[in-house]
Design a protein that fits this description.
This protein is α+β, with helices and mostly antiparallel strands. The chain is built from five helices and three strands, in the order E-E-E-H-H-H-H-H.
């Protein structure tokens, strides 16, 4: 269990939320009011991830949310079988949510906690769609007219 200090933020609630068509988000709340969000999608295996979170919640309620590495190592190594896409997807969301809490608690963005920015711009994927070919064509024109680098 994580080392307890006077500044500890104990995990009081772990919830999962399905967002159609394929996403699964986790919300972690601490006893002192901090909330962190993470994403744990593994397409086609939502129920399995929810089951993994039921186990993780049972194990980590009451733990110090600041002990991110301790929680991660315990979740990964404390059982006979390690890894796999289900556990790793759940653990990914848990990890993201804990870093979100730490950033909020310290008043800094998570990217600063993880070592800082490495670029000022990044190429991104932009989805287009529509109900009719003409709508798709118009969406493609609009996307093409925008700068593809942020």
């Amino acid at each position: 269990m994580s080392l307890k200090t006077s500044a500890s933020s104990f995990i009081s609630k772990i919830e999962v939320f399905r967002v159609p068509p394929r996403w699964l988000f986790v919300r972690i709340e601490t006893a002192d009011g901090f909330v962190g969000w993470g994403e744990s999608t593994l397409e086609g295996h939502t129920e399995a991830i929810e089951g993994a979170f039921a186990d993780l919640a049972q194990r980590f309620l009451g733990w110090d949310a600041d002990g991110i590495e301790d929680i991660w190592q315990t979740a990964y190594r404390a059982r006979f079988y390690r890894g796999g896409p289900v556990l790793m997807s759940a653990l990914s969301g848990l990890d993201i949510a804990l870093w979100d809490i730490k950033g909020k608690k310290l008043g800094v963005p998570v990217w600063q906690l993880l070592g800082g920015k490495v670029r000022d711009r990044v190429r991104v994927y932009g989805w287009i769609g529509g109900d009719h070919p003409s709508a798709v064509r118009e969406a493609a024109r609009n996307a093409k007219s925008k700068d593809s680098l942020l």
